[in-house]
Amino acid sequence: MTDANAIARRSAVLSEQKWDLEEIQARFRYLADHDIPKKQMALEEIILGKSEFLDRVQQNAEQYCYLTRNCAKGSALALLEAFGIGNIEIIRSMAPFPGLSMTGGICGPVAGGLVALGLYFSDKDPANFENIAHYVAGRQYVKRFASVFGSLLCSDIQEQLLGRAYDPFASLEEYEAFNQSGAREKCPVAPGLGARFAAEIIIQSMEDSV
Prior knowledge:
By secondary structure, the chain is mostly helical. The chain has helices at residues 4-15, 21-34, 43-48, 50-68, 71-83, 88-93, 99-102, 108-121, 133-149, 154-162, 172-180, 183-186, 189-209.
C-alpha cells in the first residue's frame, strides 16, 4: 500500500526548498576529484545520532539528485559517502539507471539503494559466494520501498509525484512537458526516502551486532 502521506509531506517540503546549488556542486566536485573517503564507522556515535544521520543521508540524496538530475546517482552517492564505501566510478556507472534509461522501468533509487547494500553486505572477497547477507538486506529494501511508494517502477512513481508518467526521449514535446512538470524539484523525494530506508537497514545490522 502506498504511503501517500509520507510522500506528500516530503513533496511539500521540497516544493519550498531553497537549493544552494553552489554549495551542493562544490561538495559533489570534491568527491568527484578526491573520491569517496573511506571511514572507520564509529558505531556508538551513529546509533546515538541515528535520527540526524538518517536526515543527512536523505537530504544529501535529494540534493545530489537535484544537482545531477539523476535519482540513481543521488541515492547511491549519499549512501556511499555516508558509510565510506565504494568509489566515484560506481556513481558514474549509475548514469543510465533512472527508470532503466527512462523507459519507465525500475526506479533509479531502487538500483542506487541495492548497489550500496551490495557493497556493504557482500563479502569483501568477491570469490566467496557463500555469503547471502546482501540478498537478505536487498529484499528488505525492495519490500520497504514498494510498501511506501506502492511500486518499484519509475512510471508508477512519476504518476504519484508528477501527476502522470513521462517518456522524455519519446519526442521533443514529451521532453519539454517532463521538464515543465516540476520533475527536478519533485523527483528527489524518491532517492531521499530510498537512501534513508537503505541506511536504516545498515544501521539496524550494526545495532544487531552489538
